[in-house]
Design brief:
The complex is a heterodimer of chains A (253) and B (358). Chain A has 253 residues and is of the alpha/beta class. Chain A folds into 2 domains: 163 residues, 3-Layer(aba) Sandwich (Rossmann fold), CATH 3.40.50; 76 residues, no CATH class. Chain A has 10 helices and 10 strands. In chain A, helix 3 runs parallel beside helix 6 and helix 5 crosses helix 6. Chain A starts with a strand and ends with a helix. With 358 residues, chain B is mainly alpha-helical. Chain B contains 16 helices and 4 strands. In chain B, a hairpin with a 2-residue loop joins strand 2 and strand 3. The longest helix of chain B has 27 residues. The C terminus of chain B is likely disordered. The chains are: A alpha/beta (253), B mainly alpha (358). At the A-B interface, helix 2, helix 3, helix 4, helix 5 and helix 6 of A face helix 1, helix 8, helix 9 and helix 10 of B. The structure holds adenosine-5'-diphosphate and magnesium ion.
Chain lengths: 253, 358
């Protein structure tokens, strides 16, 4: 049984089949890329897997569990974290607070003890803080720790979002276009971090990307989508040469 | 400029972050405690009212400023707290127990409203809470067997551990104590995972869900907490009024409470205090203004809600961070002098979010 198994997944929006009978499997420890022209259904696929949408048909299994009908907030604690193509951070909070919010699934104390801020709550807060500082060190965010998201440049926000996802200590990380809108240097850093996250932290990564350079560098296997359907699957080199993929990208431009 | 050198994470967790904080808040507390010695009965009473508003403001701020859920119906929770407390006190329950019961009943009703309004946001939520407040007002005026309807309900005298509270200063200290306790509880919530979940919901529901926050649970909790605290203010308000009737809890009160939160500065507990001072002394200002205005305008019905509404709109347009935000700007002007530039606090453009789900 694969780590993440998506089977015959479909969803329609007002007659448009945004995701149409998509199946694929991801093994534990892999970096798996999903490519396809705009509107291919990549983001929608992520929304289905992470529980934001529930599918019209098909199933999603993660770490041996059927998560098809679970809402997002029940999927996250199982060890699945994600980022968003257009960045969904907590705008009016600081970087530190954003990362601490990422620790939500690891909370142990309850609201009544928070009202009193019992010693156990303080101990827990210190523990969260230490974990968050590890992520801050890894992604070199120390300089921005106290800044509000609203005051940060785009490139930094992208990194903070990855950081917040890491604070969940996920087993599977879904990255939706982690390098879109970044300059070449920032993209390069992001590539290294994805490798680190996969290799050093042992996190399985599924990422949507357009940048074939990045995909060939970090991903072992690639799935190509077009108009909601799978058109190719295989190694980066093979998929890039696949005539259907070439057609899809040319046709889209 | 001040540089803070932190040596332990505890410094980020503590309420008072450095010696300066401890000094100023200590001084404020001393002044507040000494006020009865310096102020006459009238101003002490007004200050007591301001602190009652502030308690309600803490409740509303948690909901509006930190969870991002608007309410135009908080007068209802004030009413529920006031009536519950008065009725139970009248039935012979000890004062403190009766206050606790008022908080719990308000919180329970708040949870119900929050649960029903789960799918609503923005203007729809505002209308729904407004409707709830009108329903509450109606219920109170119809349920004469319980509340006395428009004939009113006399509020039994307060007494603490067998000692009757008859003097203004006694009520003042009671309110001050409960305000400090409420502020502590609210700030404690805000520095823990519950408060962060509320902030997360305010800023991005889809992200909040994706990091494992159960929107239904936390929104309902925020409503309950907010309503409970407002109910506490209601119980104290009852003693201030002495006589309860439904027209003490009209839409105007709800608007005033919202005004307090917005004028003070959304997303700041200090803003609540500024806002409470503002709405506490606004009626006096309006009374003075009335004297100088031509009678046709001064006596016009709806002048007060009109002015409240106008201030609300002006603040939202020109100083969305309220008095607290203005204060921060003045402070940084002096800290950075002479380097302050107009653009220092300009709000950055929010990046386009084409794929927002709601
Ligand atoms: N919530 C929604 N409502 C209606 N249509 C949607 C929604 N989400 C996605 N779609 C449609 O689904 C298709 C796939 O979109 P998307 O998954 O964002 O593509 P990609 O991420 O591959 O660029 C598009 O035609 C888009 O308009
Ligand atoms: Mg997309």
């Amino acid at each position: 049984m694969s780590y993440l198994a998506v089977t015959d997944l479909s969803i329609s929006f007002g007659g448009i089949r945004a995701v149409d009978d998509v199946s694929f499997e991801v093994e534990e420890g892999e970096v798996f890329a999903i490519i396809g022209p705009n509107g291919a259904g990549k983001t929608t696929l992520f929304n289905l897997v992470s529980g934001i949408y529930s599918p019209d048909a098909g199933s999603v299994r993660f770490a041996g569990r059927d998560i098809t009908s679970l809402p997002a907030h029940r999927i996250a604690p199982l060890g699945l974290a994600r980022t968003f193509q257009n960045i969904e951070l907590f705008e009016h909070a600081t970087v530190l607070q954003n990362l601490l919010i990422g620790r939500h699934v690891h909370r142990r104390s309850t609201a009544p003890s928070h009202l009193l801020f019992l010693p156990a709550v303080r101990r827990e807060e210190l523990e969260h803080r230490r974990r968050v500082e590890d992520v801050i060190d890894l992604l070199e965010l120390a300089h921005y720790r106290e800044q509000r998201i609203a005051n940060l440049p785009y490139g930094v926000r992208k990194v903070v979002e990855v950081g917040r996802a890491l604070c969940l200590e996920p087993k599977l990380l879904l990255l939706d276009e982690p390098t879109s809108g970044l300059n070449p240097e920032e993209s390069e850093d992001m590539g290294f971090w994805i490798e680190d996250i996969n290799r050093d932290l042992g996190v399985t990564v599924v990422m949507v990307a357009h940048d074939m350079g990045l995909v060939s560098r970090v991903a072992g296997r690639v799935l190509a989508l077009n108009e909601g359907r799978v058109i190719a699957e295989g190694s980066p080199a093979d998929v890039q040469k696949n005539p259907a993929v070439v057609d899809a990208y040319l046709g889209a431009d | 400029m001040r540089f803070l050198f932190k040596t332990h994470y505890n410094q980020d967790i503590d309420h008072l972050k450095h010696g300066g904080d401890r000094f100023w808040y200590g001084l404020l507390l001393v002044l507040a405690a000494a006020a009865p010695a310096a102020l006459g009965t009238f101003y002490l009473g007004e200050l007591n009212l301001v602190m009652i508003y502030a308690i309600a403001g803490v409740g509303l701020m948690l909901l509006v400023g930190y969870t991002g859920q608007v309410s135009l119906g908080h007068a209802a929770f004030l009413a529920i707290g006031a009536y519950t407390h008065s009725l139970l006190l009248g039935a012979g329950l000890p004062f403190l127990l009766s206050i606790v019961a008022a908080v719990l009943v308000s919180a329970l009703v708040g949870a119900g409203v929050g649960w029903i309004a789960l799918r609503m946001t923005g203007i729809y939520l505002a209308i729904a809470t407004l409707a709830f407040a009108m329903l509450t007002e109606q219920t109170i005026s119809r349920a004469e067997w319980l509340t006395g309807g428009f004939r009113g309900l006399a509020v039994p005298r307060a007494s603490l551990f067998g000692m009757p509270l008859t003097q203004g200063w006694q009520h003042y200290y009671l309110t001050l104590t409960l305000l400090v306790v409420t502020l502590f509880a609210a700030l404690n919530i805000l520095r823990s995972s519950t408060g962060r979940a509320m902030v997360a919901i305010r800023d991005s529901e889809i992200s909040a869900e994706s990091v494992g926050i159960n929107l239904a649970v936390y929104k309902t909790f925020a409503f309950a907490l907010s309503a409970g605290i407002t109910g506490l203010a209601g119980a104290l308000f009852a003693h201030r009024l002495g006589y309860l009737s439904p027209d003490a809890f009209t839409f105007l009160i709800s608007l005033q409470l919202l005004l307090m939160v917005v004028v003070g500065g959304v997303g700041s507990m200090r803003g609540v205090i500024y806002g409470a001072l503002f709405i506490g002394f606004l009626p006096q200002l309006l009374a003075i203004a009335r004297d100088t205005l031509p009678p046709r305008i001064a006596q016009a019905p709806g002048l007060e809600p009109g002015i409240f509404g106008l201030i609300l709109v002006l603040v939202i347009l020109f100083e969305p961070q309220g008095i607290f935000g203005r204060w921060l700007k003045i402070k940084s002007y002096f800290q950075l002098f002479p380097l302050y530039r107009r653009a220092t606090h300009r709000r950055q453009k929010t990046y386009l979010r084409t794929e927002r789900l709601r």
